[in-house]
Design goal:
This protein is of the alpha/beta class and 313 residues long. It has 2 domains: 178 residues, FAD/NAD(P)-binding domain (3-Layer(bba) Sandwich); 120 residues, 3-Layer(bba) Sandwich (FAD/NAD(P)-binding domain). It contains 6 helices and 19 strands. Strands 1, 2, 5, 6, 7, 8 and 19 form a 7-stranded mixed β-sheet that branches. The chain has a 5-stranded parallel β-sheet with strand order 10-17-11-12-13. A 3-stranded antiparallel β-sheet has the order 14-15-16, with no helix packed on it. Strand 7 and strand 8 form a beta hairpin. The two termini are 34 Å apart. The structure holds NADP nicotinamide-adenine-dinucleotide phosphate.
Length: 313
């Protein structure tokens, strides 16, 4: 049954990653009683990150789930409210904005879009069918299933190397399959990977197919992009880290986006719709750090506060 909540919310935050929770903290401290709609995954991508080593204030690092819990507690301490719910429909055409969720309907004077981004897929035969049966997009979630096994990691960025290194805790070997012969990842991670005896690189190559035996991953077909040669590699797991796509389908056609589908926000986090702000990876394909997302969230929160001051009757 749908329970329509006609009370107008001053600030509705869509998404509960570092951006959304930081926006909640700032708007809560201004007594706006923000409502955060968590989406499918409370905390977003950082909630499935084993350890965060580059968020200032935690010199020994902090577990992703623990950091999210801290963010949430801090925002709730000042009056933010979190609902485990996802948006199904949204209307930016007039203010207050109407937002429908699985279980409710809201009217909001300001919106903060912080729905993040989702890991990209290779779109090759076997990938979807074998997801959860040897194909994974999360080493922290699935690494322990591969104790003593041989796995591949696809990608050459920070995520591929960081997650590949994390997997060496469990697995016998990690082959990192990269489509070029030069990594995109930063120097520190590169050095750690080159120094790790369990990590090997397969250059200029891509995965053309994931194969199964008895319902689980058994091998991949590798294609050398320079020679065109295809070879089969027996393997137990395939971890894919080839970037992300922004979660902006809900806002399609209602707010300006760039060619890759990221919401365009100015340096005040203002989108093309007055009163709608965007923060974190939904509007940032470049930095993608917990600290930058949290910073954007804080800025969006501050601007929502200013907007409401200027537009209150
Ligand atoms: P990314 O930097 O975009 O790297 C994606 C990698 O996947 C690239 O090496 C790319 O190859 C490869 N790739 C893309 N599409 C592919 C395809 N269809 N087939 C095969 N390979 C493909 O993504 P990311 O590693 O997820 O990192 C995203 C951002 O988060 C970056 O800014 C990164 O610095 C940041 N990050 C930081 C940390 C950290 O600081 N500890 C950790 C994780 C992520 P090419 O290189 O040839 O394009």
């Amino acid at each position: 049954m749908t329970d329509t909540n006609e009370k107008i919310i001053k600030t509705l935050i869509i998404g509960s990653g570092p951006a959304g929770l930081a926006a909640a903290l700032y708007t809560a401290r201004a007594n706006l009683e923000p409502l955060i709609l968590s989406g499918m995954e409370l905390g977003g991508q950082v909630s499935v990150t084993h350890i965060v080593e580059n968020y200032p204030g935690f010199p020994e690092g902090i577990g992703g789930p623990e950091l999210v819990e801290n963010f949430q507690k801090q925002a709730e301490r000042f009056g933010a409210r979190l609902e485990f719910d996802s948006v199904t429909e949204i209307d930016f055409s007039s203010r207050p904005f109407r937002v429908k969720t699985w279980s409710n309907e809201y009217l909001a004077e300001t919106l903060i879009l912080s729905t993040g981004a989702t890991p990209r897929h290779l779109n090759i035969p076997g990938e979807t069918e074998l997801t959860g049966r040897g194909v994974s997009y999360c080493a922290t979630c699935d690494g322990h299933f591969f104790q003593g096994k041989d796995v591949i990691v696809v990608g050459g960025g920070d995520s591929a190397l960081e997650e590949g290194l994390f997997l060496t805790r469990y697995v016998n070997s990690v082959k990192i399959i990269h489509r070029r012969n030069e990594l995109r990842a930063g120097a520190i991670l590169q050095k750690r990977a080159f120094d790790n005896p369990k990590v090997e690189f397969v250059w200029d190559s891509t995965v053309a197919e994931v194969k199964e035996a008895n319902g689980i991953v058994s091998a991949v077909t590798l294609k050398n992009l320079k020679t065109g040669t295809e070879t089969e590699l027996k393997i137990d797991g395939v971890f894919i880290f080839i970037g992300h796509d922004p979660n902006t389908q809900l806002y399609q056609g209602q707010v300006d986006m760039d060619a890759e589908g990221y919401v365009i926000a100015d340096r005040f986090m203002q989108t093309s719709v007055p009163g709608v702000f965007a923060a974190g990876e939904v509007a940032d394909s470049h930095f993608r750090q917990v600290i930058t997302s949290a910073g954007m969230g804080a800025a969006a929160g501050m601007q929502a506060i200013h907007f409401l001051e200027e537009h209150s009757a």
